Batch of 3 targets.
Target 1
Amino acid sequence: MTQETPFRHDEIFVGFGPIDELHREFQMLLDRLIDCEDADYGQHLLELHEHLLRHCGAEEDWMRQERYTGYMKHKQEHEKLLESLSEVRRRFDAGDLESVQAFSSDLLPWFAVHAQTMDAPLAEFLKGN
Ligand SMILES: [Fe+2]
């Protein structure tokens, strides 16, 4: 299944190496999830979940270390994302493949907005330090 969205590629990159590296990895794992066979959804969801825990954790560590004032708001968005991923994994375990498909096709547009409104200002802040 190929997804065409106006958010593909460049809008998730913010011009700061360590964040862009996480975003590249995220994109690769999301592409794998979108393109996979039904039988592989569980494994790819798990890999995406593990990645996002590490990805969000790394950004939160940088924000805390640098006493970034936007920390709480940014962390709340991460928490909502991780909660919705936990929920979609529960639904998958209950046999609901449509929820996985809906989640995976909505995730890149969501992530593009997050990258532009949360990660890009953080990247600018971190580059200035
Ligand atoms: Fe973020």
Target 2
Amino acid sequence: MRFFLMLGLFGMFVPSMVLAAVAPTATAVVYPLGETEVFGLVKMVQDAEGIRITGEISGLTPGGLHGFHLHELGDCASPDGMGVGGHFNPEGHVHAGPTSLERHFGDFGNIQADEAGVARIDLRIAGAQGLEMVFGRGIIVHAGPDDENSNPAGNAGPRIACGVVGMSKL
Ligand SMILES: [Cu+2]
Ligand SMILES: [Zn+2]
């Protein structure tokens, strides 16, 4: 009897431990909105320090800074990208930058394009936890820089690329 009780407890704990160990990477293929040619791939993984975001996006303004956020919804259907709603903000904070203690969850700041219009992304959002909340939401790249201050969205201009976050193995 005790054996089966222990087996039952083991059965409850082990799957959650295994799931945590092999938590999927969050991946978004980012497609152009409207007439832009902005395209790329973004990946997010959770570690003890926070969330690490890597990837590469092309077709940007050469040398430009572009606002880069996780928005609330995963609907990239409209050419203006407005279907994804505002910044993902589960805690009701004001807009800020990724190094601020109080900010939207989706405030990833800016990505910097090189002279060929390609941004190679390697951002660390220190202290961010809760990667499980990103799935099904929208990654947006903006035409202009996020000032990491103005509400509600950093005055980053039009939405030029959009991707829905899904699960991948790597
Ligand atoms: Cu945005
Ligand atoms: Zn924001």
Target 3
Amino acid sequence: MKDTPINYNVVKQKIEESRLPVVGNATIREIVRLVNEIIKVTGDRYIRMEMGVPGLDPPDVGIQGEIDALKRGVASKYPMIDGITVIKPEIKRFVKLFMNIDVEEEGCLPTVGAMQGAFAAYLVAARANAEKDTVLFIDPGFPVQKMQLKVLGYKYETFDVYDYRGEKLREKLESYFRNGNISSVIYSNPNNPSWICFTEQELQIIAELANKYDVIVIEDIAYFAMDFRTDLSKPGEPPYQPTVANYTDNYMLLLSGSKVFSYAGQRIGMMIISPELFKRRYPDLKRFFSSDQFGYAMIFGALYTLSAGTCHSAQYGMAAMLKAANDGKFNFVEVVKEYGERARIMKKMFTGNGFNMVYDTDIDKPIADGFYFTFSYPGMTGAELLEELLYYGISAIALTITGSERLEGLRACVSQVSRDQFKDLEYRLKKFKEHH
Ligand SMILES: Cc1ncc(COP(=O)(O)O)c(C=O)c1O
């Protein structure tokens, strides 16, 4: 028994009671429950890094937009499935002003979070061509997106991009695409969990191969503008949020209100379908939908059957935030830069105490400080490290559950760790180092 910052016996007992065969391989929500159980007994505060919940307040402009709409009585009315009239032009403007991409309002659709956006994307993109029955993940990735495919009973393949950055990505991607069974390819950028950001060269490679093999790119930009190495906050001014949409018409974008707008509770995100893809006809869609047109099948097939649209008032809240951002009155990026600052400080504490960063560069540039970082400790697997850290009051998730092949790594999310916990974190990491 060691003199660990959290009572050794309690942690050990709670781990046993959890009946998880390997704690280190538990899902995010299982870790959340286990830590809650330990806290209930010890009363100690944990450095909670397992879950990607925003740790900042939602913007007033969104809340006010929503309150006003509720007072006008929107709660009793079904919203249009493809979005209320005020949100569609604001999404289109947002895409133009912050990405410099031209899209049509008809392809700008609110979704119940980027989570529903991905689910709906699979329902249509993965069934558009009967010969293409497999979705490809450029991993590591957001674990629930694979769970969605499992729930749907669809096939997927995945590879860890760690060893395939830059030009190496071309051959790797092509080795999947050339088999002819890949309907769509999905990745997040910035990436959850590794926080790598694809370079323009990499986005171009993805686009070129998507064009060559007619694969639909599902670009998940849940962490829009959160690569804080460049200031992406000025509407209509470069630099813009990097996107595959600069290089192909065969794309769908998934945006989220949850992270950069701290609006996770209202479950609102956005799907943007390229004008060409929206209009494109896929005869095989008729197997499932009344129309063979991609955009029509998405709205009146997928989004209708999933939830018949997105919460009415949340759409008004989101529209108000987008309008304020588009008008240059609300710098939504400035607010969340706090995450980058926290990451910078916390990463220093980890590396100062013998830990290593796992995904640490974007080819030739140090990785950005943002919502997540990945770390390891010499001589330990990620599963061992995760379990051991629980005795030190620190929780995270194993990278293996994200499709990463870095068996040694854990993912840390900085959002729930407040600055007044930094002293505790430093002390606990020091203790950990002392004991290991
Ligand atoms: C990469 C990625 N995509 C999508 C989501 C889901 O976002 P939302 O809350 O908008 O459903 C998350 C949330 O953690 C995420 O990390």
